[in-house]
Write a structure and sequence with these properties.
By secondary structure, the chain is of the alpha/beta class. The chain has 5 helices and 8 strands. The chain binds pyrazine-2-carboxylic acid and zinc ion. Pyrazine-2-carboxylic acid binds near residues 8, 46, 115, 147 and 150.
Length: about 200
């Protein structure tokens, strides 16, 4: 069984949002086509409490895109984004979210960020997604959404470690690209065994 994993299509990651991914909204029509093609849809939603420790504003003297050492490793500091209950945390209005069967929220613990949909950034705290997927006999996951070099990459790498076949739909993702992170992400995903595909290969 296969599932479509629609990652973080939220206002704050789209142009005009607090942490806009360049051309992030461009993929929405492609996502809607894929959504109508798949039977099982899982969406993720970045969902931070105010004062989340991944925000630069929570660390006096720090600027967005600086990094700090957390007890789980290096953390990029972000502009405040996807705060629970705000407009910025809502799904993009043009995304067809009606078909989503489960929505995984992540980053809701103040002290820990969560890029991956499987594990939080300590690589230990689970979101429960693996259990859901296994119980539904899902073997193949098609990752789409934002951002290629953060939430998509970490989800793809973790998904492979969890034993799933991870596909990444190249024309249905967009990246942030901090200091070459986008090229590095593509290389890491390829190296780990992710399968690169396109929406045309899936739909046509
Ligand atoms: C993301 C940075 C911070 C993402 C989420 O969705 O890739 N990136 N929070
Ligand atoms: Zn976030």
């Amino acid at each position: 069984m296969k599932a479509l994993l629609v990652v973080d299509i939220q206002n704050d990651f789209c142009p005009g949002g607090a942490l806009a991914v360049p051309n992030g909204d461009e993929i929405v029509p492609v996502l809607n086509k894929l959504i109508s093609h798949f039977d099982i849809i899982i969406q993720t939603q970045d969902w931070h409490p105010a004062g989340h420790l991944s925000f630069a504003s929570s660390h006096p003297g720090k600027q967005p895109y600086d990094t700090i050492e957390m007890n789980y490793g290096t953390q990029v500091l972000w502009p405040e984004h996807c705060v629970q209950g705000t407009k910025g945390a809502e799904f993009h209005p043009d995304l067809n979210s009606d078909k989503a069967q489960v929505i995984i929220r992540k980053g809701f613990r103040k002290e820990i960020d969560s890029y991956s949909t499987f594990y939080e950034n300590d690589q230990k705290t689970t979101t429960g997604l693996t259990g859901y997927l296994r119980q539904r006999d899902i073997t193949d996951i098609y990752a789409v959404g934002l951002a290629t070099d953060f939430c998509i990459k970490w989800s793809v790498l973790d998904g492979i470690d969890e034993g799933f076949t991870m596909h990444i739909v190249k024309d249905a993702v967009r990246g942030i690209d901090l200091n070459g992170s986008l090229d590095a992400a593509w290389a890491e995903m390829e190296e780990k065994g992710a399968i690169f595909t396109t929406s045309h290969q899936i739909i046509d």
